[in-house]
Write a structure and sequence with these properties.
The complex is a heterodimer of chains A (286) and B (239). By secondary structure, chain A is α/β, with parallel strands linked by helices. Chain A has one domain: 2-enoyl-CoA Hydratase, Chain A, domain 1, CATH 3.90.226.10. Helices cover 48% and strands 15% of the residues of chain A. In chain A, the strands form 2 sheets. Chain A has a 6-stranded mixed sheet, sandwiched between helices. In chain A, a hairpin with a 4-residue loop joins strand 1 and strand 2. The longest helix of chain A has 17 residues. Chain A is globular. Chain B is an alpha/beta fold and 239 residues long. Chain B contains 12 helices and 9 strands. The radius of gyration of chain B is 17 Å and the shape is globular. The N and C termini of chain B lie far apart (34 Å). The chains are: A alpha/beta (286), B alpha/beta (239). The interface between A and B is medium-sized, with 37 and 32 residues.
Chain lengths: 286, 239
């Protein structure tokens, strides 16, 4: 398997003031590669710069929104970062830069989606794991299919390396801790009850379409004004602080020592391949 | 009085109940605090379970006042940075509370400080804020949301188990007969995370809790205790 076989599409419908960003890597559960993450960010930049667009919908092609980021690149992302290939093991600065650039920093995917100036609507379908969960958290509105499931299985393998402020603000502290420590997956109804999604539907396309039409009818100035009010609240909530903390802890967690008997995903991946390691490490979610 | 077992990465702390905290029994609280700290430092432990084997997790007690609000013992054992509540809230390991029966006063303060809570269907939760100045309101607001935390604090309503789950105060509600097994199963699930991962995840959480003002609210316990004492003296009661 190569990691360059995915694409993120951008479709613009200026007459209806709507954009669609679609993740296409169906054979791999729409697991995001670094290249796809960069495409997604570039599309958000394009949408933000287009005055005819008021609403952007994010979705995955096929059965899943996204079942995570691609573990094939778990090591390369650090090696390729500045200072990553100087010694045998990537430096700590390379790990920090890689995580900041890809996910949590100002140009990272989650920061960029969270600070999009247009209304963002995510269609959550099937596995919404890791990247899928944070696309959900960073969107303004979320419609989930009845089959949607939300989890971060990687945390069970290494520890928690994602933002907690948004998660706590959205679902509450103890539920956040359940996701952090207990290897839990929430189904769509649970996600709705906890406030992670705004609606659950057997036909999410119809509901997403209705929401997009409604949001596209709002005045441009009104949308952008409301979005900046949200950005001010996010700053007050300490989300930037939490994103930076996630980068620091994430870089440290890429360097942990395993105790005898503890499951080591990367070792499993080296020995048995990505598919086998993913299957084994996610079996508890079935 | 405090029974401790360590097996399979889980440290289980068993007591008859936690009413000693509501009574401000400094010996009990100090021993419990030391036990939690020792388990947090134990490299064979990832999860700490706080379990009461009596009828109630923390039964209701007649009016009990905290010791003089500037008491060194009270601050050292209960309210201060090295006291019991902050030792639980900022513990390096995952703390699980197992609740059956009545959970009142200090029991609810302990539940707020713990990471995960499993409750029996027969359990109920009284607000700690009228009786326990060490109870952390910021934790309650983050856990239940601000409006619910305010209502709980002001009305002193007792939440039944189902309502406690609905508002996010507990993670799971289970039949009384299976409570222990469910807690053990949850603790076992947590142990799948690497030991380094558990500790670093707690560091990340601590940074976020600090940013939300959890530590600052613990610092206000002295103020809350003084207000309570003043109310008792001038109005004949905490309200």
């Amino acid at each position: 398997m190569t990691t360059d076989d995915g694409v993120v599409e951008l479709l613009l419908d200026r007459e209806r003031h709507q954009a669609l960003i679609r993740i296409r890597r169906e054979r791999h559960g729409n697991r995001l590669t670094r290249a796809m993450g960069r495409q997604l960010v570039a599309h958000l930049d394009a949408v933000d710069a287009d005055d005819d667009i008021k609403v952007v919908v994010v979705e995955g092609a096929g059965a899943h929104l996204s079942s995570g980021w691609d573990p094939e690149e778990a090591w390369e992302q650090y090696v390729d970062a500045p200072g990553g290939a100087v010694k045998k093991h990537p430096s700590q600065r390379a790990r920090l830069i890689a995580l900041d650039d890809a996910w949590w920093g100002r140009d990272g995917l989650y920061h960029r989606l969270l600070h999009c100036r247009k209304v963002t609507i995510t269609k959550a379908v099937g596995e919404c794991y890791e990247t899928g969960l944070y696309l959900t958290l960073c969107s303004d509105l979320v419609v989930a299919h009845e089959n949607a499931r939300f989890a971060v299985p990687r945390w069970r393998n290494v520890g928690v390396d994602g933002d907690l402020s948004l998660l706590i603000a959205t679902v509450g502290l103890k539920r956040t801790k359940e996701l952090m420590y207990a290897g839990t997956a929430w189904d769509a109804r649970t996600a709705l009850r906890y406030g992670l999604v705004d609606g659950v539907s057997a036909d999410p396309d119809e509901e997403v379409g209705r929401l997009a039409e409604m949001c596209a009818s709002i005045m441009r100035d009104g949308i952008v004004t409301e979005k900046y009010a949200v950005f001010a609240s996010l700053a007050k909530m300490g989300v930037d602080h939490s994103f930076a903390a996630a980068t620091v802890i994430g870089a440290s967690l890429s360097n942990i020592h395993f105790q005898p008997g503890e499951y080591n995903f990367l070792a499993d991946q080296r020995r048995h391949g990505t598919a086998a390691a993913l299957g084994r490490s996610r079996r508890h979610l079935e | 009085m405090i029974d401790v077992k360590v097996a399979g990465w889980v440290g289980t702390v068993q007591v008859p109940d936690f009413a000693g905290l509501t009574r401000y029994d400094a010996d009990f609280a100090g021993e419990l605090r030391d036990t939690v700290v020792a388990l947090a430092d134990d490299s064979e432990v990832k999860v700490i379970v706080l379990r009461a084997d009596g009828e109630d997790f923390a039964p209701d007690l007649a009016e009990v006042s905290p010791p003089a609000d500037r008491s060194a013992t009270w601050r050292r054992v209960f309210a201060g940075a090295k006291g019991l509540y902050q030792s639980v809230a900022f513990c390096k390991k995952v703390v699980v509370t197992e609740v059956d029966g009545a959970c009142r006063g200090a029991g609810s303060a302990l539940v707020l400080c713990s990471d995960l809570t499993v409750a029996a269907e027969t359990s109920s939760f009284g607000s700690p804020f009228l009786t326990t100045p060490e109870a952390n309101f910021v934790l309650a607001a983050l856990t239940m949301r601000l409006n619910r935390a305010k209502a709980w604090a002001i009305t002193g309503d007792v939440l039944d188990a189902a309502r406690a789950e609905e508002v996010g105060l507990v993670n799971q509600v289970v039949p009384r007969a299976s409570l222990r097994a469910e807690v053990d199963a949850l603790a076992d699930r947590v142990t799948a995370m690497p030991l380094d991962g558990v500790t670093m995840s707690k560091m990340l959480l601590q940074a976020v809790l600090d940013a939300h003002g959890v530590g600052r609210d613990f610092d206000l316990a002295t103020h809350y205790a003084a207000r309570r004492r003043q109310a008792e003296e001038t109005e004949g009661g905490p309200r």
